Amino acid sequence: MRYIFKFPDIGEGLEEGKIIEWYVDKGSTIQSGDPLVKMETDKVVTDIPSPKSGVIAVRYGGIGDTVKVGSALVEIDIEGINAEAAQRMASEEPKKASTESVDEQGFGGVVGTIEVAGDGAYLPAGDEGISEREQPQARRKALATPVARAMAKDLGIDINQVTGTGPAGRVTKKDIQSFRPSTHAQPALKATPEGSLDRIRIEPLSQIRKTIAKNMLRSKQNTAHMSIMDEVEISELVNARARLNEILAEQSIKLTYLPFIIKAIARALKNHPVMNAELDMENERIIYKNYINLGIAMDTDDGLVVPVIRDADKKSLSELALELKDLMDRARNRKLTLDDLKDGTFSITSYGSIGGYFAVPVIAYPQVAIFGIGKISQKPVIKDNQIAVGNVMPISMSVDHRIVDGAEVSRFVNEVLSYIKEPMLLMV
Amino acid sequence: MVYDLIVIGSGPAGYVGAIKAGQRGLKTLVIDKKYVGGMCLNWGCIPTKSLLESAKMLHKVKSAAEFGIGGIDPADLSFDWQQALKRTQQIVSKLSRGIEFLWKKNGVEFLKAEAKILSPTQVEADNRILETKNILIATGSRPAQRKDFPDALSLEDLYGLETLPEKPLLAGRGANLVELAQFFQMIGKQPIILADDLPLMPSLDAYLESYIQKQLKKNKIPVIPTIEAVIKDNYLVYNDKEHNFDMVINVSFRSAILPESVPVLELKNGFVKTDRTHQSNIPGIYAAGDVNGKSYLAHVASAQALEVIDTIMNVELPQDERQYPLNIYSEPEMAQIGFTEEQIKAQNLDYKINQYPLSANGKALTEGSADGFIRILFETKYNEVLGVQIVAANATDLISEAGILMELEGTTYDLARTIHAHPTVAEVYMDAGAIEE
């Protein structure tokens, strides 16, 4: 039985990828789960594993070629599978992708989330499969020509919203080309008379933007957001950082404030495990995570990415600094892998590095909380009953009140700020 | 009494349009001065195909021994023109009765007379003035009169001949010219093509044109450009070589047969100028088929007439003119639909061509007709099929699959994915669709 494996949307809402390296040749025997090909996408470089065991019958595309999501990557001859089993496999529901936190540096409280494939979520089968017969529980789908479908996918248009002008309402290429989002979906356009399109510009949503929109809404609809804001005087931290940078200069390591804050948060999370948990309403339980993986929002030319520092509580300041630098470099060069983006348990956004004191960050559902760092500035502070010039860092934190109460949040923030105010405490 | 529609001419535009009009409840009258069915049925599409079939059978029977059939000596074989004509006549009269039956069934009246348009609502015929709301001119075309051979026979005249010429000179251009030349060649005559211009078939992809030129060479049919020929009484000189002929047949490009009309119809290159709905410059007067000069294909004429009826019934037409197959009943047959490679290039599209030979097709080999190929021209963004060209014994039937594929904006993936029965010649679609570099 021949299995046609199409380049799956690996959960990032991506549209295409570039082939970096093939791990198989025509005729290679491959086991399910073994890597087939290394692909570079908008965000990451990742290995695509084989969904099936078998022999590679056809390989599509060479190194450097761009492959659209949904185009065939390989055809695999599967031994000993009858048509019925193959059909069943093809129609299996894809495993659900998990969501990880993303927030956007420099956009204040506007915190995005992108969907990142979780374990086993590599193969949302979609229309990929052996037989093109209608799946047993057929979804209602628009009658459309093959080219109209491909074009709609390409342009990010939901074909079910397009009115078809062909026989029996079939959606044709022309219908896609002349499609404008409905006035229902975009009331702002309603008032726009036809022909004044020079005053506005219409651009279909990119996959990533659609995913962000969906996830933001999901967070707001599924959690009870509560925010707390505070300020902390960080002169000690300023000094500590300066001294450490002198010492580390030999190793060419330069510390920013972020590693200190990561350490502070990681330490506090140990004492407040509910901040590092997940609410499982369906089963009426709380899932506590015994690992601390901090998602760090990074702004890149291509958009927002949130790579994860794993086991942040177990890493030294210099290790954190090196890891942050590495992640930032790879984020900017689109060399992050899917593994870099997976499994965050708590998120940090340092919007203040671009601007803004306070914000209301949006939680990266289903995480419990997100910690935001505002712009550090010199301000008058009271020291020994005197007005003095202090270095003040504002912070903003959002939590899911369903699972955490206000008092607990305040205690958590107090602890984090105590480490930031007096970094020596981190040594204890 | 006022008709809703008077159709002048009863060829593929006229009779098809009239039937549809009747079905739509329009009070319809067809007027034709000569035959029911027009040129297509009486001396065009159908009779020529019937005669070609006779010639092709003769051609095929010659290789009977190769297929394991004994008792046939190719030297004994001959072509019985009168019998071939008789068979043709039977087919024509059967189809002609079919049209009359369909008219009757759908309430369409018929008048055998010469028609004259008096006004957008009046037609004179049979010494009567008939009132109508709409007029459809479907009077067709005929080969343009030749200056070099004013007395040349037309295709229509050919059917009146007792015997056929041995060395006919076929003067003109187009698919008919090629078909007729191969017909004469297959029945053992020595035809000469006097080509008014090259390519012989300008609507065809250059690839197909070059294929047919080679085929004619193989058939030993000389193709002589008119401009380079010195024509004498019964021979012509070309490249210092004399070519004798005993009859001239006019297969020139066509000119419109225009009905007499009091309202002045605007013409374009001698044809009735029409808009997208096939309406002339005079509202209420339409022209469909050859007479409007958009195409000389029967199926296009019919499609245009149906669009006229839609327009009269206030049905909006799609903006684009439709794709239609172009069939050449040559040996082997050729068919084409959609854009040619030249047309795709002119649009600056990224495209590829998947070509698959018939010699790799099992069914074609068993039939002893493995000459030919399929070419699929597609753009490379979505792999939408933009054109299909086929050379095969049954190319003119095979092309229909491409027609529906393109009507539905299909891609090469759809071809590759569609399960085709084995063994069939149509499998070449699947094979060509599946070609990957």
What CATH architecture label of the largest domain in chain B applies?
3-Layer(bba) Sandwich
Helix content of chain A: 25-40%
Q: How many individual β-strands of chain A?
A: 21
Radius of gyration of chain A (CA) equals: 25 Å
* CATH domain topology of the largest domain in chain B: FAD/NAD(P)-binding domain
Domain count of chain B, please report it. 3
Distance between the termini of chain B: 67 Å
Spatial separation of the terminal alpha carbons of chain A:
63 Å
| Percentage beta strand of chain B | 15-25%
Morphology call of chain A: globular
Q: Could you state the oligomeric state of the chains shown?
A: heterodimer
Continuous helix count of chain A = 10
Average pLDDT metric of chain B = 94
Low-pLDDT residue spans of chain B: none
The total number of structural domains of chain A is 3
- Estimate the strand proportion of chain A: 15-25%
Note the overall shape of chain B: globular
The helix count of chain B comes to 13
Q: How would you name the CATH homologous superfamily of the largest domain in chain A?
A: Chloramphenicol acetyltransferase-like domain
